[in-house]
């Protein structure tokens, strides 16, 4: 790395540590909230699609279309309706993340073997017990895979939230673009990449802890 570029990066962390940590904090908060809300909505909608086939076609189609639309376009489409700031950024990220969770939930629930459901009902379980004790535990690995995909998409796309004043690491990147400063572009870009990798590693660890049988062969 060029010595002057390295000095610029060092100077940034020396003089703007507080601003950098605030951007990281904003990025983590908006990403975590968007992931929690999208996971709840995605699992509920996925369950409805699996249980009520008449909902599946149009619900999956709607979210597939939203997935095709670029995140930045969704953000700009929301500005006339909701203005700028945290709220429209959250909605855009949630709309981006729901499809992968929804479709993995549908696939996971549909792959539950019929004989296991018959056995569960045969021993006297109610619909609610079958859902919590049979369907969701068996579908959980696929659902978590969808959540992991969504988490990485959210952390990367939250960069665009800064474009409408929601803060986060995107503000460093857009400042770097405006001022043509490579040091800021590197700091913002590498930080987003590190957060994405960290989110993936955390969810990988959660998967290994929750579903030990998949990794131990027991």
What does this protein look like?
With 218 residues, this protein is mostly helical. 85% of the residues lie in helices and 0% in strands. Helix 1 (3-15) crosses helix 9 and helix 3 (53-68) crosses helix 5 (86-110). It is elongated, with a radius of gyration of 21 Å. The model has no long low-confidence stretch (mean pLDDT 85).
Layout: helices, strands, pairs:
Layout: H1 3-15, H2 17-51, H3 53-68, H4 71-82, H5 86-110, H6 114-122, H7 127-157, H8 170-179, H9 182-210, H10 212-216
The helix content is over 70%
Radius of gyration: 21 Å
Oligomer: single chain
**Structural class by sheet pairing and helices:** mainly alpha
What is the ordering of alpha helices and beta strands? HHHHHHHHHH
| Overall 3D shape | elongated
- In CATH terms, the superfamily is MetI-like
Give a short account of the largest sheet. Answer: none
Could you write a compact summary of the structure shown?
It contains ten helices and no strands. With 218 residues, the protein is an all-alpha fold.
